[in-house]
Structure formats: structure tokens, C-alpha cells
Amino acid sequence: MTDRTIAKPSAPTLEAVAAHAGVSRATVSRVVNNSPKVTDEVVAIVNAAIDELGYVPNRVARSLASRKTQAIAVIVPETASKVFDDPFFSSIVQGVALHLAGTEYTLSLLMETENSSAKTRRYLRGGNVDGALIVSHHVSDHSYTQLGATVPMVFAGRPLIPEAVASYYVDVDNVEGARMATNHLIELGHTRIATIAGRTDMPGGHDRLAGWRAAMAAAGLDDSLVAHGDFSPADGAAAMRALLERGEPIDAVFSANDQMAVGAYSAVRSAGLRIPDDISIVGFDNDRYAATASPPLTTVDQSPEQMGEAMAGILLRLIDGDETVPNATMMPLELVVRESTAPRR
Amino acid sequence: MTDRTIAKPSAPTLEAVAAHAGVSRATVSRVVNNSPKVTDEVVAIVNAAIDELGYVPNRVARSLASRKTQAIAVIVPETASKVFDDPFFSSIVQGVALHLAGTEYTLSLLMETENSSAKTRRYLRGGNVDGALIVSHHVSDHSYTQLGATVPMVFAGRPLIPEAVASYYVDVDNVEGARMATNHLIELGHTRIATIAGRTDMPGGHDRLAGWRAAMAAAGLDDSLVAHGDFSPADGAAAMRALLERGEPIDAVFSANDQMAVGAYSAVRSAGLRIPDDISIVGFDNDRYAATASPPLTTVDQSPEQMGEAMAGILLRLIDGDETVPNATMMPLELVVRESTAPRR
DNA sequence: GTGAAAGCGCTAACAC
DNA sequence: GTGTTAGCGCTTTCAC
């Protein structure tokens, strides 16, 4: 086999392969696309020609003709540093990458820059990709929804705006997760359970507070111990301090996310109290703050990586024209019990 | 004017704009591409038609005709989790994204998966992108070098294999950085300076050891205190332990990276010694381990973000056919003095 | 300055 | 099964 793969200046075209193999371009195209209706013999000849010439199909030409790009975009309307530092985002992208690895699709990562929203829209409408995944904490970014009619897309998280009802999204049942976390505390015998809630204008913040309320109500407990924060450790510390300063007894806390829970740790300690001996704490997210906290934080695991995988899977089905895809897909949530919670003394 | 912009299933084409504006397709194309040779009047008419129709050029068709994709790939032959967890990788990608934000280029992120090396090669040769950035710690991945003839590419880090001499890369002067770090220790009055070297089959490991040797030799100091590790904290601890067990006096240590330096911290303490009182330690990389270590680690900052920006800039010049781009571009290195180093007592 | 026409490299009917 | 013939939507000479 003359395997002379000399680096030619211009890549060989399908036409060159056809000539070399003595068949038509259509046949070469069929072979390249694994069409079943080609003689094994011809397939062999064509493949030999392909190898000999080192032919690689031009994806752009292919895309133009087939109207498929075999690429999807992951749009994260956040700065690059945020995207890489926030484990939620990075895990989702990881999940997407994982799912795509088993396919022929490639991934384009679009992050927000100054006013790149317009740039992103043009990108989406310019036929660069077959579909898009929108990942954001900000509800407002469901504004991309309108483009859903042009190109299939799947969102991470439930849309808050009503116009987006018809959009596709993958989410976790935050209400249920918060309920699980709170019930865990209740089962341990705690009765004075506070919550450090997040911003309620975000679906997650809103629903987690609702879940806590639901669990408290179901157990007939007082649900007045509420403080709010914006999901950062500093906010968690401040919220915990505020809770403690009320002077009312508190034997457990449910925090809307791990970062605030870890912030609460320091406030609890500054008050001379121990975790979990005096106060049990449960977080939400199971991010890296949770596992490395001391003591390790009991939390609700939402596996953003699985979420990313699910999003990619759904998008691909949408691209394939699957009409049976449900608008909402809920991911399972799991309580991870660690050492920050203990039975009431 | 019959301005019925009803949401058509298929996007308006350049042809539709031409018809709407009463000009030829060529003229519309010229307007879209800001050609100077079009009357202001005509430009206005065409732009009006574009707005009215909500026309967005199809990038794929454009790419096929112009033979430019306006996209570059960032290839990181590592698993997605590694890419996102290792600050070196994520910072480079951030830098690239930053640079690209000011251009019309988009970024495709390709991470390694099982046997995706072949997939990546096809991607590169398939005309998906105008150029590629290869970011890896593994020298072997300079194997992509051969493709450099097909599509422009820029590597992060100097190639170790000789065949790659003609490739483009951005790197830091590791020898100089190690020398700076070591000289800092020497200037503080230390004389028994050990080094925890990395793997010498990696350019960084090799050169940092060489820099330490050079500085020690220049100062006429003994350069026998050498231990090796594979860049992890555990390796750093083991290496430090080995150094200490020699029983020879040591008053300072230069570690080939921050992670090993932090590992050395624990070994030093287990031996009942204090940092920097008994032993001064300098790291390399200025990653997040360095800043959060206690005491904060004096280290050499290599700013991978700037490196990413530089790589993107160089690649774009290469794509533009700039013949004056040098093969090697060295990024400045800076010593960040923190509290892990102190004058000899 | 503007238009006509010829592709870019491939896929997709439609014949044979 | 295989070849023929049109395009996909745009850029780009080349005339005018």
C-alpha cells in the first residue's frame, strides 16, 4: 500500500477521491456517510482511495449542503473567570462534554463579554450550531428564549418568566430538595430550625425557601427564623449573625447553598457555639465548599454534571426532531449526610 | 411598503435582501462586508432592507465561499474535569476568551476524551477552524505539530521534541524564573538552599531545576540538595521529608511548583520546624494554593491568563498570514514575595 | 460603483 | 447500486 501521506498544500477533495477510485462523487459521499446502499466491493475501493489521499471531508461544505453543523453551543452569560471558578458552571460543561464525547458533535463555548449578547444572538442565528444550551443563574437570560423558535435550545433551570413556558429546561426539584434537607433536621429531633435563604427572585432561592417552609409546616414547627443572603460565604455569615442576634434558641440551620452554609460556620463559632454539637447545619449544592469544610457539610447534591449530560441529551433529541421531549426534565436530588448534622442533644 | 415580516420558517437569505433592496446579491455582500466601494446611498438602502428582514448572514455559506471560519479551537488534551480544576488551564482559556472578545472570532473548546485524539485531528483537518491553540502539560501532545502545516497553531509551552522546532509557542522563561526565586533566597542570606524539583522530562521541570543550579553556582553555593516529585502536594511532602532526613542543614527551599511547596509545608512542620523562621520556601506558578497557604507562599507568577491572551493574539496574526511572527514568545515572569520567606536568622 | 456569473466542497433528489 | 444534476448561501473575479 503506497502510504505516502505527504503534506499537500491544499487538502484533497471528495472529487479527487472519486477520480482516484473511478466512481462518482455521489458514491464517495455515500461511503463517507455510511450509506447502506453501496456494494462492499466499492466501499473498499473508495476507502482505499480515501486512505491513500488522506482525505478528510470538509465540514463546512458538508454543513452547507446538509444544513447541519454537528456542533452545539454552550452559552454561559457570565465572565470567563466566573465560568471557570464556579463549580456549578464548570460541572455542567463537564457533563455536556462527557455526553458529546460519545457523539460526533463538537462544543462551542460562548461566554459573556462586554456587550456580546448581540454577538451571541448573531452567532445563534447565523447557523453556526445546530442547537444551544443556556446556562445561567440569571433568570433574565431566558431572553434567549425567543430564539428557541430559530434554533433548538435547552436551559439550565426553570424559567421564571411566563413567556418562556414553552421552552425546554432541565432543573432540579428545589422544593423537594429543601424539604429533604429540612426533614433530615427534623428527624434528628431539631425543632428550632432556621433557614438562610437566597435571593427569592431566582428560582433556586425561591423554591428552596418554599421547601423549607413546607417541611416546617408539615411538622407543625415555627417558620419564622428566616434570614436572607446572596449566596456568598460573607452573606451566609451575616445572615447567621442576624439569626443569632435575635436571641431566640436555634438548634439547626438549613442554608440555601453551601457557600452561605460555610459562611455561617464562622458566625456560629464566633458566637462560641459548636457544629454540630450546638447547631446542626445543612447546605445545598454539594460543591467543593461542602466537602472541604470542617466539619464536612451535610448537603443536598444536585450533580450539575449529570444535569449537563441530561441537557446535552435532550438537545440532541430536539435536534433530531424528537417531538416527544417534555419541556421540563427534573434531575434527582440526593441528601449527602456528613458531619455537620447530629441528633439533638 | 408591504412590510409583512411574518416569522418565516427559514431565515431570510442574502438574495431576499437583494430583491428587497432592488440591488444585486454582490452589492449586498459588499455592504455586509463593509466594502468601501459602495455608494453611501446604496449602503443605506441595503442596510434598511437588512434591518427590515432581520437578515443575518449564514456563517457556514460564508465560510465555504471565503475559506475562513472565523473560529479557532482551543485544544486541551485533558479530561474536562482537569481542564476546569487546574487553574493553569482555566486561566489560559480565560485569557484566550478575553482576547477573542475583541474580535469576531469564536472559540471552540476541545477536550480530550477516550480516544478523541483522532477525532480532534479530523476536526482540525476538516476545516472547522482557522487555527488552533494547543494547551497541555504533556510534551507528547506536541504531536499535533505535524498538523501545523495544515492549519496554523500555537502551543503553550516550549516543545521538547526537536521536530517541533518550527512550531509556534508561547512560554515563560522557566530558567530565569527559577533563578529569580533562588536569588531571592540568596539575597535573604540563605546558603543551604535545597530544591524540590519536578519531573525533568517536562520542559518546566527541567528548566526550573537548571535555573536553581545556575543561581546556586553563580553564588558559589552547594547544589547537592535536590529531591524530585511529580508536582502534587503529596510528592512535595515526600520530597521535603527525604531532604530533611539527610540530616544536613537546610535553611531554604525552592520548589518547582506551588502545589509541591504546600506539600513541603506539612513535612517541615512535622519535623518541628517553622516557616519562615527556620526554613524559607519559594514556589512557582502563583496558583490558588500559593495565596491561600499559611503562611502565604512567596512564588513566581507566570500569569497564564496573559499567556492565553498572547497565544490568541499570535494565532490571529498567523491566520492573517503575518510572516514576521517569531516562533518563540516569552512571557514576563514576576517574583511575588509573600510571607513564606524571611532573612536568615 | 454595480451586476453577472462562476464557483467554494459537499449532499440529496432523481434517474438509470 | 450508481451516476447525474441541482443546489446549500455566500464571495469573488470579471466585465460594464
From TrEMBL, chains A, B:
CDD domains: HTH_LacI, PBP1_LacI_sugar_binding-like
Gene3D superfamilies: 3.40.50.2300, lambda repressor-like DNA-binding domains
Record keywords, A-Z: DNA-binding, Transcription, Transcription regulation
SUPFAM superfamilies tied to this protein: lambda repressor-like DNA-binding domains, Periplasmic binding protein-like I
Residue intervals of the HTH lacI-type domain: 12-66
Example GO molecular function: transcription cis-regulatory region binding
Protein name: LacI family transcriptional regulator
Organism: Paramicrobacterium agarici
